[in-house]
Amino acid sequence: MLTAEAAFSLFLMLALSSAVYALAQRFRLPYTVLLTLLGVLLVFVSSIPALAFLREFHLTPELLFYIFLPTLLFESAFNMSIRRVVDEFKPIMLLAVGGYLVSALSIGAVLWFCLSLFGFEIPFLVTLLFGALISATDPVAVLALFKEYGAPRRLTLIFEGESLANDATALAFFLVALGFIEHGLTSGSIALGAVTFFSSLIGGAIIGLLMGTAFVRAISFFRENEMVATTLMIVLAHMTFLVAELGTHVLGHVGVEALKFSPIIATTVAALMMGNYGRFKVSPRADEFVEKLWAQFAFMANSVVFILVGFLFASVPHGARDLWIPILVAVVVVMFSRAVSIYGTLMPFNFLRRAEQVPWTWQHLLAWGSLRGALSVMLVLMVPADLAVPGWPLDISVQNFLLVLTVSCIFVTLFIKAPTVGPLMRLLKVDTLSHDEEVAEREARGIVHGRIQAALEKFGEKGYIPAGLAASMRARHMEGFRKYALSVQSSSGESRTAAERVLQLYIIGIEKEVLKDLYVFGEVTERVFKHIWGKLTLQAEAIEAGLSPDPHKARDWRDVFENLADFVHSLFGAPSREELAEDQILYYRAQHILANKIIQELETFDRDFADTMFAQDSLDRIYAIYKRYRDEAQKKRDDLRAAYPAISAGLDARLAGKSVFRVEEKELNKLHRREFLTSKLYIKLKKESGLE
């Protein structure tokens, strides 16, 4: 029951977590480490009678399982590119399933053996249960460090993908291990456990696909109502999790206890589907809002969880003080087993898949950066307090014993491993910039110096800045511009090729930006938007790989959800001839607009940076390509207008209306923002204009 004291405690924790986050950024420390330390400090502070209310809000399995976990899972999967996940599917799943099982079994066996050497006759099934719950990794602190220190994108994806997928493996195997304790380790229970394990993963994936499809379909009906569409995207995470969990309960009630649906897999699949397919059903503005909102939810959930992990320290029973030997042994065994799981799975992978090798330096980081967090806490709290194990030798319960070991391992990973991840990255040179990144950095610095020069000149002329100060500042930035321009001009042929790749990627970024604007204001349909977006994505990937981009290809086999949607749509008939004609006209109109925008940008670069920051031949070559695109798009559009005059005329009228609508919205917003219009007048005029 949530009391006023518990609610006050919760919001105080959130307020403190904000301060801790700012502190962590200032001192470049993992904020989850400081949050856990804050939790430990609050344990002692709460012993003061006036502050005893701090203990009122505490972790429960239900709170973690039904509120925090779906939030953390959905936020992580929502922002993952399914194309990149497919690219790295083999190492991710190898680590998430194979590596996890190696770790869990290794911890169970080695911990059981080592504890028996020290006189602790802990049953093997208990150490196996500990291995199952502690082998789940938490990427929060490490990913923040990866982002700060600039880890390679592929390494970040493998690490995050493994952490996300092994949550599902961990829950499934934990339930199997718990079942072994409750029913005994027999051939029948092993077979039952295998059925439970695989049905959990497969069934969860099916539930996730069905829920994702249902919500994507529902959101498509409310695209114009951003509030409803956004709410449905938020509801999807917890609804999917609960549907999978309730489905398992229903199967249990009808006597099919062996079959289960993993709520973690279901939520992950639904989030991937929404993040890679469903997000295009809402406007880009709503999509950006949802992305930021999920990031905020995840921050708040992580903040509360890690503070309360510190509070768990207070709930450790007094008898645990005599368990310092099992604690030390468990910490060492967990670290050893993680290393075995990483090197033992990736070494054969590297041997068999030489083109997809995971470098040794990355393996070292994966082994060392295996922090434990929310899921391990949730699983240990799910262990029944009255769990009976034949031959249990200790005075404290099995749950308390596992809680002691789990909290100890979490503390070690947070306070020892997390702070050393950054130095380890520097030592292994994982944070070293690639050649293309070095070129991009050099050119970006030069461009910034050049733009500042021009701005300072205008500021001095208009009197915004004293003329003498403007001149001295301009001289400093002019020197910076010359420095980087000189380094570009003296660069090798390889660097010039890299510079052209950087410029091409920048141009594709502009195209995506403009395309989003066209979609926001309804100047392209969803089909046209996805087609062009797919082309730009494939072109960017080809350029990054050093290949020649295909200007016509818009999709490949890695677009899992798009291809699945196309298959389903094909069962219900194709778009009409009129719809296809409209799409073609809008497509070539959009291509014409994009090419025009790029030509304008290139003309600016040609005027300001030709033969300084960019080679003239590169600018000329790209300019010629986009001029050809523009001319071809214009010709195709004219041909279509001639072939479909009625459809074209209707589209022209509609698009003209949208242009007026766009200007009207912009001007009304500006007048309201500048307090020309009161809120009442602003709402009245928006309603009259059909903007609401």
Could you walk me through the main structural features you see in this protein, from its secondary elements to its overall organization?
The chain is mainly α. The protein has four domains: 4-432, Na+/H+ antiporter like fold (Up-down Bundle); 433-490; 493-514 and 525-643, no CATH class; 647-692, no CATH class. The protein contains 25 helices and no strands. α5 packs across α8. The chain is globular, with a radius of gyration of 29 Å.
What is the typical, i.e. mean, pLDDT?
86
- The first-to-last residue Cα distance is 41 Å
Overall CATH architecture of the largest domain: Up-down Bundle
Q: What's the SSE pattern?
A: HHHHHHHHHHHHHHHHHHHHHHHHH
Low-confidence spans: pLDDT under 50, at least 5 residues?
A: none
Helix-and-strand structural type: mainly alpha
CATH class of the largest domain: Mainly Alpha
Strand content: under 5%
- Principal-axis shape equals globular
Can you count the beta strands? Answer: 0
Radius of gyration: 29 Å
What is the number of independent domains? 4
Main sheet record: none
Short description:
This protein has 692 residues and is mainly α. It contains 25 helices and no strands.
Summarize this structure as a short list of keywords or feature phrases:
25 helices, single chain, Na+/H+ antiporter like fold, 4 domains, globular, mainly alpha, 692 residues
Show the helix and strand layout.
Layout: H1 4-27, H2 31-45, H3 61-78, H4 82-87, H5 89-117, H6 124-134, H7 140-149, H8 153-183, H9 187-221, H10 226-253, H11 263-276, H12 284-315, H13 324-352, H14 360-368, H15 374-382, H16 398-428, H17 435-462, H18 467-489, H19 493-520, H20 526-544, H21 560-571, H22 577-609, H23 616-643, H24 645-673, H25 679-689
Helix pairs in contact: 1-2, 1-12, 2-12, 3-10, 3-11, 3-12, 3-15, 5-6, 5-8, 5-13, 6-8, 6-16, 7-16, 8-9, 8-11, 9-10, 9-11, 10-11, 10-12, 13-14, 13-16, 15-16, 17-18, 17-19, 19-20, 19-22, 20-22, 22-23, 23-24, 24-25
